Amino acid sequence: MESNLIIYEDPSTFLERLNKLNEELTFSERLEILREIKMKHTHEKQKVIGIMDQDDHGRLLPPPELREIVEYMGPSGEPVRDVKLNNFKPISNHPSGGFFGPKICGENFRLFLSSHPVYINPFSSILGGYMAYFMSYRDPHWNPDLSPPQHLVEAWSKYDIYPGVGAVQHFCQDMQIGFSLGWGGLLRKIRYYREINPQAAEFYDGLESVVIGVQEWIARHVKAARELAEKERNPTLRRNLKDLADINERLINEPPRTFWEACQWTAWYQMIARMYNGSGSMGRIDVWLKPFYERDVAAGILTDEEAIFHLACLFLNDTQYYQLGGPDASGKDVTNKLSYLVLEAVHRLKAPANIGIFVWEGLDPRLLDRGIEIMLEDKMGFPKFLGGDALIEGFMRNGYSVELARERAYSGCHWFAIPGKEYALQDCVKINFAKVFEVAFWEMMSDPNVNPSVEELWSRFETHLRKAIDIVREGLDFHMENMHKVFPELVLDLLCYGPIEKGLDASHGGVEYYNLCLDGAGIGTVADSFAAIELRVEKEKRISWRELAEELKNNFRNEYIRLMLRNIPHYGQGGTHADEWAVKIAKTFVRLVKEKPTPKGYNIIPGLFSWASMLSMGQRVGATPNGRRAGAPISQGANPEPGFGGTPTSLAIAVAAIQCGYGNTAPLQLDIDPTVFRGKNGKEIVKALILGHFKLGGTMINMNVIDKEKILEAHKDPSKYPDLIVRVTGFSAYFASLSKDLRQFVVDRILAEES
Amino acid sequence: MVVFVVKGLIFDIKRFEVHDGPGIRTTVFLKGCPLRCFWCQNPEGLKLKQEIMFYPERCISCGACMATCPRGAHEIRNNIHVYFRDKCENCGRCAESCYSGALQFVGKWMNVDDLIKVVLMDKPFYNASNGGVTLSGGDPVMQYEFSYAFLERCKSEGLHTAIETAAYCRWEVLEKLLSVTDLIMMDIKHIDSEVHYKATGVRNDIILENAKKLAETDKPLIIRIPIVPTVNDSPEAIAAIAKFIQSFKNLMFLELLPFHRLGEVKYRALGIEYPARNLKTPTKAKMQELIEAAKKFVTNVFSA
Fold first, then answer.
1. Domains identified in chain B and CATH numbers
2. What interface predicted TM-score (ipTM) does this complex get?
3. How many contiguous H segments (helices) and E segments (strands) does chain A have?
């Protein structure tokens, strides 16, 4: 049902409070109000949706009369609770009730957009706001006719594999394609290639529907903005609405000409990308916005204050992933004035943001300094730091040129992709190492023909890990074979090199490079488990294998034994046997992954990451020999178990030592209580940690600068600090929006590093 | 040929220490101190011998200590762990079998090779932050042979070295350590020898003499004063120390460290009375007042 609904943020109360009903507003006054409106929406989301164990996003709730609450499987393989628009019902083309294939996906998305209310915030220089996710309507989300082979399904569960089958987005488009063509140009391009590739008619139908859907959606905003401008009395807001109507009227067809227009174009794109399938990848903003910025400044039509304001409005519109700095193809650092303005915009916003500084040998050191200053001052887990040299060198090991490696841009939680050219399934494919360990352990213990030993256990672990990786390979081929028939990448395809030209979805050969992600999770749990057995069972003989098995089976009836196993020199302390085990596990994992591509020939790049899945992955693993109880979280990402008893330096060294070395990351999650710096120059210390970790080969640092007292209080009563922002993993979120389990996890992590 | 390996008795190694000198450092705490300051925050560092620390609240009543103690120093009665310190010979076997953290054996004999391995782990971070190694205690002058051997090794590894000391020792000892030390952080508690004796168990003549001699060297020097209520928390007491050091050419700054009670739990664990139990942490206003008093004589005065 087409929506005529217009949601307008009524400015009157704010204007009254400022006593500026009829007076001009400054950028900073507008930004202050925008922040307040953002908090209002966040509170409402916390009330209505409740728990959000994921990125905050910039989404707004639909008006109450359009709300329908649902739960479904989210893009990272974790269940998501969500609010749908109740005025949109997708058309089905399958007896299951679902809709599959490019044509119907595009058509349904166009219908979805036509049901989506118009949102106008008169204080913002960006028109539009998004309220729902198209993914929520995909039920079932996989075509039952294309069910995967049974042996795969069984093995996925056996090894707790996130196979990536049916996973969406998690690669990056090139915004410059959109900036040069605009929606009208994209439409012409689609129609041109439709003639050349008639076999792909359905694919082009889908793409066309998406573009037309966006154009119609923008057009409704233009009309509403024009009408509202007529009524608005405040001169700043009135002019803003009129400008927005003019700008967007052009943008329905034309490419952006100015910095403001480019920000607005980006906002439309990021909204439909996010709504269509959750994509949050943006890449190198200080590269693709730079020509607009420089042109406008030279022409005298843009001040830095205005540029900061447009950027802030863009970041309020959604919390996309951006990179700052880093080399261009020729090896020259791209850091420029705009890089600093982006930092400044987020600094003034004080809202969750996902912006990474590419720290490499050629980086302008002032950008790093400014980033650290802001991180220490705002304490919002922003920005994050990317280990450029190791990433470039690593990616080249896959056989790519240095120029191509330099192009790869930060565009998601823990990951990179070459904008417009690489399909990657980043963060979608995982093996739970702890589960593989569990399988190996019980297989050995139930084999009457062997005497249990660490050596035997290791050899079985390796065997099962190899099997698990083989299963992943097969699953990835299955995905690549079928995904385009189910739910193609109609939005990302638009701004990639190849899909339109070839008539092929990015998940099906449309782009040039395919480097599929495979991350291992729980390395800390497994490394400690091996080390604990080695020390307590084999070396000291404090307990026997049988006793150990009994205790694990009974989830540690004997607390003494549990503590004995728990209290070993952990992975992460530095120089321990568990540290050596972690290196051995990582090296073996990398070797096994790189033994061969998938049967169909797709390259796989190993990494170590768990996203926020260490809780759900832990729930599926029984008690482990490191004294971890059944169902407790496994270790996060590449980090050790909470309570590992090390320091930020030992942690940084340990994580650097287990890097996989092929251009994907094993991020270091570092929580720092700034009170440890008391009066000392925290900036220099943090900088030394960052540079030290990267010098040792680190690839990414997610840092939380956190007030320990504050976080403990907020854990007791989240409502006390509704706007406290933490970096959970690769993403930042409002602490109060997290589930109690995830809050507990973050708190434990912080306390552990403190002690 | 017999080779003597110098060993040091170490009670803690803290990596990522950012308050014991410049940059990121590793601080090594040596056991043994010639002073007995009644407010000492590291009571486990006072004696030059291994000791048992007992935290009954962590005990899970597993009885492992009972089974390993050759002297019957541990008993579990009705799930309550009783530790007879008078029977204990500090052999450490009980702590080795205790995984709950209730019993801990403080003090580990290490040679320079073992210790340097730990210290070198963070070398990349020392380099990036102009940090290094700090030798603390107790007081590093107590085990000066080991201290010298270790610091000498640090220098040969290219590390920046610092020591924290009360300088209650023969000048020759200090002089020898200086040859392998880049920064000295020295405590002065009081200028009045009688007050000093009551508070620390020793007179301050040697300390002040050594301070003057230190001032004649070209080694960067930081003077620190622990601000302890009833001992030296008056502007006069602080001004007197500031005046004493005002002409020190190598003085980088004077640092005032407020007394705090974080050490209290360790006294209990060692089974000794906490003599400073009635003292309170100086207020911010008090610290400010003392800083002002010191600034009359010394330009650079800081408080942690």
1. 7-48+110-303 (3.20.20.70), 51-106 (3.30.70.20)
2. 0.92
3. 28, 19
